[in-house]
Amino acid sequence: MAGIGVGSRYLDQRAGRVGTPAAASQGIARRDHAVLIGPETATALGIEWGRLAGHAVEDNLFFHPDVMLPAIGHLGEDPRIAVVRDARGRLTGLAPVVMTRLGRIAPAVSIWSHDYGPLGVPLIDRRDVDGAVSAMVDIAGKGSLIVPDLTLEGPVAAALTAAAERSRRPVAIVGGHLRAMLLRPQAGTVDLRANSLRRRGGRVARQMRRLADLGTVTIETTAEPDCVRARFEEFLTLEAAGWKGRSGTALASASATAGFAREMVFNRSEEGAARIDSIRVAEHPIAILVSFVAGATAFTWKIAFDEGFRRFSPGAQLMLEAPRSLFSDPNVARIDSCAAADHPMIDHLWKDRLAVGTLVIGPPSGAIHRLGLAVLRAEVGVRDTARRLRSRLFAGRKHREAGL
Q1: Does CATH number 3.40.630.30 belong to domain 4-178+355-393?
Q2: Number of C-alpha atoms within 13 angstroms, CB side, residue 102?
Q3: Are the beta carbons of 68 and 84 closer than 8 angstroms?
Q4: Where in the chain are the domains?
Q5: Predicted confidence (pLDDT) per residue in 64-88, tens digit
Q6: pTM recorded for the entire structure
Q7: What is the CATH number of domain 185-332?
Q8: What is residue 204's predicted lDDT score, i.e. its pLDDT?
Q9: For residue 102, what pLDDT is reported?
Q10: How many helices (H) and strands (E) does the chain have?
Q11: How far apart, in whole angstroms, are the C-alpha atoms of residue 30 and residue 385?
Q12: Partners of 290 in the beta sheet?
């Protein structure tokens, strides 16, 4: 599919208008140039795309080609790929985008994220952050740019805000919240499990001892590709047997999500970037965690547990054990839980927090943008209130506490 040039001149696709980007109108030199291409064309980027993911100023597993292309192929969406190149033709930025309306009212371009990829940070080359981000902002043309699931305190958010200010575009944050994460502990600090045992008066340790009464307990970690795939099939079965299976939200509940997940796991395991941790009793898996590594960040993507062992808190036990194995990789500096805000289990186990929210960059002027933003704020407020009520309602139900 042919690309749509939006670097030196932008295209308002809805109205068919062509104009000059704000940066150019202010006499700011622009070396970087952005185009929108289709996924079929994007596959040809191959090694270049993977190299950008490795050099990105912020890690985003879900925008790696091994993950994004299967998501596009299986999940029924049809995003374009925003590709930024510098004056030498080097790939410096990339993100999937969809044409939408802010608050269902104002024309907008939104970076695409989804339920199985809760991070919307564009891939931005750490050597050209300002140039690549400025070109990406220009994609919005006379509309708004929406960046969901953005790390609000990271360098990309700072660069987006600065680019908006240079272009005299208003910036707003909607739905900001904190999600659980872990930073690599300093040498000599007490490990996560010891801290949890101290806080919880030994309850976690007692649960593990009682679990051992039922059979030999093993904690297994695997990163070998064939073993990862075999353990992932166990995960799919275990998840489908629990409450997610009954509610129709397990990965195996639909061929589309199962196909996406299998392809994602296959691709990342081939690169040595997939890891599966499990707790097993007499060789029977009672909790399985699927994680991936991208750059210096590990992502604990999905967890499932056997509800017959609920009284032993197997999900919590595994989330206490997993950081030890993930941090055994010296390149991993942080672990992103990928969990929802106010999660009833992981928020009590992991002490560090990642600020996440939706960044909205508007056009230099326009009442319709302000109206759309007001509607979006109201919708997000209602959803957040409902989520907090659900979290409180289910906080005491152990089968919910053990899942992500």
Answers
A1: yes
A2: 32
A3: no
A4: 4-178+355-393, 185-332
A5: 999 999 999 999 889 999 999 999 9
A6: 0.86
A7: 3.40.630.30
A8: 77
A9: 93
A10: 15, 16
A11: 43
A12: 276, 302
